Amino acid sequence: MKNLVVIAFLLSLTACSFFKKKQGSDKDAIARVNDDYLYASEIQGLTKGLKGKDSIEVLKNYADNWVRKKLLLQKAQQNIPEDDLGITKKVEEYRESLMLYEYEKALINKRLDTAVTQAESNEWYEKLKVDFPLEKDVYQLLFIKLKKDARDIDNARKWINKQDDEETARKLDGYCKEFASSQVLDHGIWYDKDNLVKNFPLNENDIATLSFSKSFKEFKTESGSWFIKIAAVMKKDQAPPIEFIHRQLVKAIIEKRRLQLVEKIYDKIYQDGIKSKSFEILVK
Fold first, then answer.
1. Does domain 134-234 have CATH number 3.10.50.40?
2. What percent of the chain has pLDDT over 70?
3. What pTM was computed for the model?
């Protein structure tokens, strides 16, 4: 126990020269299984932020798990020769796969274009929209959230449902810039019912009422007044609005680009091999 206390203290001093000891020093060891040792310097970040008994408990648990794994591994090595299971080959195959993965990842990070235009998104939406039917009703919301100290709210009430008039819309825009903490008045944002209730001062009855209304309705809260309108409703099992699956579309577009890039890179390497005569297929 005394040794564990000392080691726990030393592990918290990551800059200490203790950890600069050459691996293999018995003074650094916290567990042993036959000739295999677990050294404190290998796990110096394990107890970061921990003190006293908590630090010791973490060390004990880690050491115990390490010992159990080592005992099992050594028993396996004694009873199952590596070549019997083709382990050497499997390890080499895994190493090769890992190297290819890291190389591919580095190339993709360097070369992959992740910018998606609206035109691309629209094109993919037409192809994929039937594959993403809505799982529940969704609502296109327009809203203004006024600050608690907003003045001349009567003007906002008059202007908000008359935005077809250019002059009125201009007045409302200026008013919102001064007194609104947030607003969406152009194309709206799509929400399902759960998120409407979660993010806005609405209950299910309010949502039902707004769904059949063509006007903004005012909702007063302690933090200020809301003017809310449901501009459109799309029902469960319908094709979703493009905004509702935008992330899936972008992900699909980028994934296709990634696959095309990988294929192009691998083909280039293969063609270079042909030109340099660095390989030949000997099967006739």
1. yes
2. 88
3. 0.59
